[in-house]
């Protein structure tokens, strides 16, 4: 007996629908919140129901959702591209992560939930306290 694995692609989903679906999966309360976090206008993503988004705006949303632009466009069902070895082995100085803005830029989400300003402050304070006096 041969077992066949069948995968159905979500080809009928629009870019807007994919963004809406993944943002909900990641715990965003609304697309407005996602829009603002991506540095876009409050209703920018909603406008993508009827308009084609600019590449830079789509990239900003993909970065926040930690997915590829190709995934949002429906070109692939792989949410994130396979990372290269150089990306995997890139070192980050933890001193950089004591700045809350850097924490929010580098830690997009944890457990599918977005990293909030409060989370970034707690992480920053923890790192500063932990490494204080360890010279």
UniProtKB/TrEMBL annotation:
InterPro entries: Cro/C1-type_HTH, Lambda_DNA-bd_dom_sf. SMART domains: HTH_XRE. Gene3D superfamilies: lambda repressor-like DNA-binding domains. GO terms for molecular function: DNA binding. It holds the Pfam family HTH_3. Signal peptide: none annotated. Residues 30-72 form the HTH cro/C1-type domain. This is Transcriptional regulator. It comes from Weissella oryzae (strain DSM 25784 / JCM 18191 / LMG 30913 / SG25). The lineage of its organism: Bacteria, Bacillati, Bacillota, Bacilli, Lactobacillales.
């Amino acid at each position: 007996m041969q077992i066949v694995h069948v995968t159905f692609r979500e080809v009928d989903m629009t870019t807007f629908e994919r963004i809406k679906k993944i943002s909900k999966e990641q715990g965003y309360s609304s697309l407005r919140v996602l829009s603002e976090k991506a540095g876009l206008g409050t209703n920018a993503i909603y406008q993508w129901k009827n308009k084609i988004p600019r590449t830079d705006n789509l990239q900003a949303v993909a970065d926040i959702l930690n997915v590829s632009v190709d995934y949002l466009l429906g070109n692939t069902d792989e949410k994130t591209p396979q990372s290269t070895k150089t990306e995997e082995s890139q070192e980050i100085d933890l001193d950089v992560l004591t700045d809350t803005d850097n924490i929010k830029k580098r830690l997009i989400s944890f457990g599918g939930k977005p990293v909030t300003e409060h989370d970034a402050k707690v992480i920053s304070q923890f790192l500063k306290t932990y490494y204080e006096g360890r010279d």
